[in-house]
Amino acid sequence: MQDRFQREINYLRISITDRCNLRCVYCMPPEGVKLVEHEDILRLEEIETIVRAAAAVGIRKLRLTGGEPLIRKGIVRLVRKLSAVPGIDDLALTTNGILLARYLKSLEEAGLNRVNISLDTLRPERFKEITRGGNLTDVWQGIKAALASSLHPVKLNTVIIRGSNDDEILDFARLTMEFPLHVRFIELMPIGTCNAWAEEKRVPYYEIKEQIEKELGSLVAYEEVPGGGPAKYYRLPGALGTIGFITAMSNHFCNHCNRIRLTAQGQIRPCLHSEWEIDLKGPLRQGAREEELQALISQAIQGKPRRHSMDSEGWQDQRRSMFQIGG
Ligand SMILES: Nc1nc2c(ncn2[C@@H]2O[C@H](COP(=O)(O)OP(=O)(O)OP(=O)(O)O)[C@@H](O)[C@H]2O)c(=O)[nH]1
Ligand SMILES: C[S@@+](CC[C@H](N)C(=O)[O-])C[C@H]1O[C@@H](n2cnc3c(N)ncnc32)[C@H](O)[C@@H]1O
Ligand code: SF4
Ligand code: SF4
């Protein structure tokens, strides 16, 4: 379905839990977050019902995210249900990779198509610091398992933070020479615990690109990486994988926005940045029929703002952060 700015909205990102087994310094506070009552989180069957309604109004791609989607009980069952919904032709997952090796085979068998793995450093000690306790080996096992599976293309999400991991840009770029990985450098957005310092520590994509080109050779634009997201891809000479840039701040991609979100608590959030949401959980639990859900989702699509204004306003939403909305 088109929104009022003639953008085709066909991608639903679903936060299936607001909990996480890591505490990345830019995303969550060290103590974690106030736990939402179990009752307030959408049940798997409710997610399925919403997806059926969304597919009926033109959603074709789904992404399960969070929080950490792999800690949600029943994740494999959910993937099996959603992959069977008529109209859905791409079902992907964004994960921190800690539990990926454990679940990969079952997810693949259940119908998952692709996986994006978040990884901000290749150094074990630094990984512990950035994630406040995570084990890098677990993530590497997940990445290797994904590469050995049918879930291609395998993409990495790497947020570069000045003074923290900006000395690893070339190491990440070199990974694409060795493995068929799609390494995407993401500009830090003022969302989560980094709200106050994101601007100061953000490394704009052109700095990263310049450094890679200076040291490793020209980046040639590459448009063949399947997906529904905003990354722009390039390839180093002779590389097996690609290098992508997600330029959320220095060159926003809202003009080509194709997505809406479903929060873990059951609201449709038409834009990552806008606080405006439409509740589906309430109507669903009061017995709304699928047509009513379709009407609410259509309303959300029609109400999508033209673009975010994180550059001028930062993050004002006191209720929700990235992991509740589905980053
Ligand atoms: N500003 C903005 N950033 C987004 C949006 N969606 C995703 N991002 C950023 O892009 C990152 C990567 O998103 P992923 O979950 O890997 O999904 P994707 O890149 O859309 O997925 P594919 O291209 O389909 O593989 C997220 O972690 C966010 O930082 C969005 O709507 N707006
Ligand atoms: C919120 S996490 C949820 C899924 C899963 N836990 C993971 O880390 O992949 C999704 C992505 O959002 C990114 N992210 C979180 N906060 C961000 C911010 N302030 N700016 C840019 N990306 C951010 C993370 O790096 C991760 O790649
Ligand atoms: S970025 Fe992902 S892994 Fe890290 S704390 Fe946020 S939700 Fe958890
Ligand atoms: S910030 Fe909002 S309008 Fe821009 S790409 Fe993300 S969801 Fe779309």
From TrEMBL:
InterPro entries: Aldolase_TIM (IPR013785), Elp3/MiaA/NifB-like_rSAM (IPR006638), MoaA (IPR013483), MoaA-like (IPR040064), MoaA_NifB_PqqE_Fe-S-bd_CS (IPR000385), MoaA_twitch (IPR010505), MoCo_biosynth_MoaA/MoaC (IPR050105), rSAM (IPR007197)
Keywords tagged on the record: 4Fe-4S, GTP-binding, Iron, Iron-sulfur, Lyase, Metal-binding, Molybdenum cofactor biosynthesis, Nucleotide-binding, S-adenosyl-L-methionine
Names of the cofactor(s): [4Fe-4S] cluster
A Pfam entry, by short name: Radical_SAM
Catalytic class of the enzyme: lyase
Family classification: Belongs to the radical SAM superfamily. MoaA family.
Protein name: GTP 3',8-cyclase
Provenance organism: Calderihabitans maritimus
Gene: moaA
